[in-house]
């Protein structure tokens, strides 16, 4: 007899931008915030996310909405995975506490809503150039740039796949 599957528990970690402030306030602190496209999740991503999570007790990840990814100029066929699919994969990670999205060109509104204790970006973003760093520092938080340990990128992966065709 076939039974209907249960709703995956990780879906409870996903929220809308309108829910972000309330959901973030419920998290155990210190709260860490990061953002990105996270299109084809790879070892570089999961290493970075785990290291970001270690900067506090809870990790919020804000993904670029599909329209936002298009504006980044990563290619006509990007994102490969939809916003909802990218959010679900991230939410399934143990180190991630909450996932939302932003449709603007920068995550500043999401950062202001979440009011994290720690803002984290990858090593290609020096603290002085991080969107939201001055705001997080203004309420006593800190901004951290984590050096990449595994030189991987979705763009490089897609180039490799396309070259194999």
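Sequence proposed for the structure above (165 residues):
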């Amino acid at each position: 007899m076939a039974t209907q599957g249960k709703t995956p528990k990780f879906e409870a970690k996903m929220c809308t931008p309108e829910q972000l402030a309330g959901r973030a306030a419920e998290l155990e602190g210190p709260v860490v915030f990061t953002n990105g496209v996270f299109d084809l999740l790879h070892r570089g991503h999961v290493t970075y996310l785990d290291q970001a999570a270690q900067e506090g007790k809870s990790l919020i990840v804000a993904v670029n909405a599909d329209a936002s990814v298009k504006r980044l100029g990563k290619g006509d066929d990007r994102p490969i995975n939809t916003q909802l699919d990218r959010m679900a994969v991230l939410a399934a990670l143990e180190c991630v506490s909450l996932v939302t999205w932003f449709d603007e060109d920068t995550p500043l509104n999401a950062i202001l809503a979440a009011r994290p204790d720690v803002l984290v970006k990858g090593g290609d973003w020096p603290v002085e150039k991080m969107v939201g760093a001055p705001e997080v520092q203004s309420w006593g938080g800190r901004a951290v740039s984590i050096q990449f340990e595994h030189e991987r990128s979705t763009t490089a992966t897609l180039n490799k796949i396309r070259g194999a065709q």
